[in-house]
Write a structure and sequence with these properties.
By secondary structure, the protein is mainly α. It has 25 helices and 9 strands. It is globular and about 80 Å long.
Length: about 550
């Protein structure tokens, strides 16, 4: 059965009424009246329309809508970075309101977990998981925590980051710059990271030569670089009163005097000069603070064009929720890499700007689309929609996504209360949580310190999931653990087994799964029933269904 969006039914109904009314009621033919005008649609309706056109052009049929069990687990992972608790899953599944999906999204966007999740994502994006030397992760997190708690406009957040100066904890935004100034490279890394992260442009390859596939010139990299040549990092030290030795105190970003051109060498060996210029817009070389001029240009609309920071953020957020953005990768937009759905990208970016860069509103739009509501299961009618095989994404089903390290860790905690098992007070629990999280970061990290480090089945990751202290705590029956609480309360064995599945997978077991699990438990014998449930829960937590976001 083909899934038909609601707006399509409305259009079809309107066309039918036009035919019944007869030719004298309108100056348009029935087929012309049925042709939708995306400019007159709401943003979600327009997105649905353009994606549906992609289905039709490629002659595919989208998958069915996701079940409530599949959708609620997905939206919790995407919005707040963890699976729902057992109680949250039950509450949602028992809700019969037709608006419960949009209501839940609104509720999650107002939760502290949304703030924590976005803070984690953007702190990792800006400084990495392994905190560089003389960088304050606490300061960077504080900046983002306040920004997302207040739902600050994204353009203001970006401008604050790229123009920040001062103490690395008094103004946490400076830690982004400090993280890129780990070596004296004339702000080359800072230039490349800024254009990639906030403009969605990988111009670093033009540092040494012209781009081979478009008209980006080598000079463009150094024109961007000219904006950051006034940046200087200052490291302060202090005397340790106990040892009398000099130790690190704090770092800061200051603006230094630099108003000349930047010199760079062409492949021919000729030396060239570059002055600060943003997408063709020149800035006076003697500008007092070039970064502030750069910040103004970032948010300025030119001849009706949507600012790049809006398109870059929309593309990145769409990729966060679907696993793939409109370009691959999401931070390499340009004439050499056309978006899969340019109309969707443009419309969302325009609406994002019109909303005053409201991040929450953008999330509401994305999660309200028909594409986001589809199941991850696909069939013969849309099996060609496989971006993992190099195909252009058509978003005819939800793509399975690997969990981030933090998502997997927090989901294990939510499913099992592992950090509370055998521990007394809150501080002891938090100390244990920080220690375990550090193990996750080490197991998930790469030499390149990638922005997105996911579970991809490496041997350290597999061993961590199968046989680590955290997993031992997750399946323990000590007081305070999930299994202990489950066994302690009244109820039938069938009900308790359902709760194991709900807690781990966000769904109840199928009849065959329930029968198989019950036979397994009986095979252990009455004396070993606790061990049977431990083994069952261990298997659920190590299953692909738990580890992946679908």
């Amino acid at each position: 059965m083909k899934f038909v969006p609601k707006w399509t039914l409305a259009v079809a109904l309107g066309a039918s009424l036009a035919v019944l009314a007869g030719p004298g009621t309108s100056g348009l033919r029935a087929d012309e009246a049925a042709e939708p005008d995306p400019s007159q649609m709401s943003v979600v309706e327009a997105v649905n329309h353009f994606i549906k056109v992609g289905y039709e052009d490629n002659e595919i049929t989208p998958s069915e809508p996701a079940s409530d069990e599949e959708w609620v687990r997905r939206v919790y992972l995407d919005v707040v970075g963890r699976i729902p608790t057992l109680e949250e899953a039950k509450e949602y599944l028992e809700d019969e309101s037709p608006r419960k999906r949009s209501v839940l999204v609104d509720k999650l966007l107002e939760s502290p977990d949304y703030i924590r999740n976005q803070t984690t994502i953007w702190t990792n994006n800006c400084i990495g998981r392994g905190t560089p030397r003389r960088v304050s992760r606490r300061g960077m997190e504080k900046f983002f925590r306040e920004a997302f708690a207040k739902n600050r406009p994204w353009d203001e957040v970006v401008v604050d980051i790229v123009t920040a100066e001062g103490h690395f904890e008094e103004n946490g935004a400076v830690n982004y710059t400090l993280a890129q100034l780990q070596m004296p490279d004339d702000a080359v890394q800072l230039t490349a990271k800024t254009t990639k992260l906030f403009l969605g442009m990988q111009v670093q390859c033009t540092q040494c030569h012209n781009h081979p596939f478009n008209n980006w010139q080598q000079a463009q990299f150094w024109e961007f670089n000219s904006f950051f040549r006034q940046v200087r990092k200052v490291d302060h030290r202090k005397t340790d009163p106990n040892t009398g030795r000099q130790v690190d105190d704090y770092s800061e970003v200051v603006t230094r005097d630099f108003n000349g051109p930047v010199y760079f060498e062409k492949r021919s060996g000729l030396m060239q000069v570059a002055f600060p210029k943003y997408m063709g817009k020149e800035v006076a070389p003697d500008a007092f603070d070039r970064r502030k001029e750069f910040g103004k240009l970032l948010v300025a609309a030119d001849n009706g064009e949507t600012p790049l920071i809006a398109k870059a953020f929309v593309n990145r957020m769409w990729g966060h929720f679907f696993g793939y953005g409109f370009t691959r990768p999401v931070d390499d937009m340009g004439p050499h890499n056309s978006p899969s759905h340019p109309e969707v990208l443009d419309r969302l970016a325009e609406e994002f700007v019109d909303s005053q860069y409201d991040v929450k509103k953008l999330i509401q739009w994305i999660t309200s689309t028909d594409a986001y509501s589809l199941t991850s299961q696909y069939g013969e009618d849309n099996e060609v929609d496989d971006p993992g095989a190099g195909e252009v994404p058509l978003f005819s089903h939800m793509y399975v996504k690997s969990m981030q390290a933090e998502q997997l860790y927090d989901s294990l905690i939510v499913a099992s209360n592992a950090h509370k098992s055998g521990r007394g007070g809150w501080e002891a629990q938090e100390q244990q949580r920080r220690r375990w999280m550090q193990q996750f970061v080490v197991a998930f990290d790469t030499d390149e310190n990638d922005e997105a480090t996911t579970f991809n089945g490496t041997i350290p990751q597999a061993l961590m999931m199968m046989n680590s202290e955290l997993i031992d705590k997750a399946v323990s029956i000590e007081r305070g653990s999930f299994l202990f609480e489950t066994f302690s309360k009244p109820g039938s064995e069938a009900t308790k087994m359902q709760e194991l599945y709900l807690a781990a997978l966000g769904r109840r077991p199928t009849r065959s799964e329930a029968n198989l699990a019950q036979r397994m438990v009986r095979s252990y014998g009455a004396a070993n029933k606790a061990q049977a449930y431990q083994d069952l829960f261990w298997a659920l937590l190590n299953s692909n269904e738990f580890i992946f976001n679908h």
